[in-house]
Design goal:
- There is one protein chain.
- By secondary structure, the chain is of the alpha+beta class.
- The chain has twelve helices and six strands.
- About 4% of the residues have low confidence.
- The strands form two sheets. It has a four-stranded mixed β-sheet with strand order 2-3-4-5.
- Helix content is 50%, strand content 10%.
- The chain folds into two domains: 167 residues, Hypothetical protein af1432; 80 residues, no CATH class.
Length: 287
């Protein structure tokens, strides 16, 4: 197992390290990280979140870490399930990875307007940023539109209460939910934001995504005191419950290196919308 007790240095995480040269996903990553407009939006989103609301990081570093997490989850789960982009004949795995990358990187853009319904604002702001680049990457404008639609669904569905209807959107939600180490809440905590959310987050040192044994993906949350369990239940489990992928993921909690046996991780969110997604397409079923 990967070393879990060291504290994750969020400032050094680069999603670029998980992308192959010459891919469309890398081209999109370079476009987004090099865009003055995108980076300004992300900085402003963080100003809204941290300075005005006292929330956790929602800026460029969160975008990078969440995307890094999502790309790891994509690589692991892609071995067992087909992305919707592939299963529905829209594109290949590189296209699906581009969808995950773009939706995860841009998911919090709407925070520049307000926390409330920021997922809706994010799709309005992201579409005009993405459209010209997708038209450049894809010769077929219809395919570019299909890819854009998939990205916008991922952005919209990152909200806790919104069921993900594609594999790619579920991966974006996992990437977002796994960014919950103490580095994300450090600034508001030291500015006096001391509540169960910040205290719990300050307990978490690292979140590791790796292949599981009895389920395809294992998420290991390493913490230095059990207060971090609240963050696991209130953030990660809640997001997984609407990801469409929760049945294929195990969560392991380590407290100072010792496995914490939970009799049950409570599912805090029960969806009542009646539009939960179909199970992801298994590779064995589709190939």
């Amino acid at each position: 197992m990967t070393e879990t007790q060291s504290v994750l240095d969020r400032d050094k995480v680069k999603a670029r390290d998980l992308l192959e040269t010459g891919t469309k996903a890398l081209e999109m990553y370079q476009y987004l990280t090099g865009s003055p407009k995108v980076q300004s939006y992300l900085r402003t989103a963080n100003r809204m979140a941290v300075s005005r609301l006292g929330y956790t990081d929602h800026g460029p570093i969160h975008a990078e870490v969440a995307t890094w997490n999502a790309l790891q989850a994509f690589t692991i789960l892609d071995e067992a399930f087909m992305p919707n982009v592939v299963a529905e004949g829209i594109g290949d795995t590189d296209d699906a990875r581009l969808v995950v990358l773009a939706s995860t990187y841009l998911h919090d853009l709407g925070m520049v307007i307000h926390r409330k319904e920021h997922y809706q604002a994010a799709i309005q702001l992201s579409a005009p940023i993405l459209e010209p680049k997708l038209e450049q990457i894809y010769d077929d404008s219809a395919k570019a539109t299909d890819i854009l639609s998939a990205i916008l669904h991922g952005i919209y569905a990152h909200d806790d209460d919104t069921p993900c209807l594609t594999f790619e959107a579920g991966i974006t939600k996992i990437g977002d939910g796994c960014d919950m180490t103490k580095g994300r809440t450090m600034v508001p905590f030291h500015q006096g934001k001391v509540d169960i959310h910040s205290v719990s987050a300050m307990a978490i040192n690292n979140v590791i995504l790796e292949k599981g044994d009895d389920k395809p993906l294992r998420i290991t949350v390493a913490m230095d005191n059990p207060a971090g369990v609240f963050q696991v239940e209130a953030v990660l489990v809640k997001k997984l419950s609407t990801s469409g992928l929760d049945d294929h993921i195990n969560i392991e909690v380590l407290v100072n290196g010792d496995r914490l046996v939970l009799s049950q991780i409570t599912r805090l969110h029960v969806d009542h919308h009646g539009d939960m997604p179909e199970p992801p397409v298994s590779r064995s079923d589709g190939e």
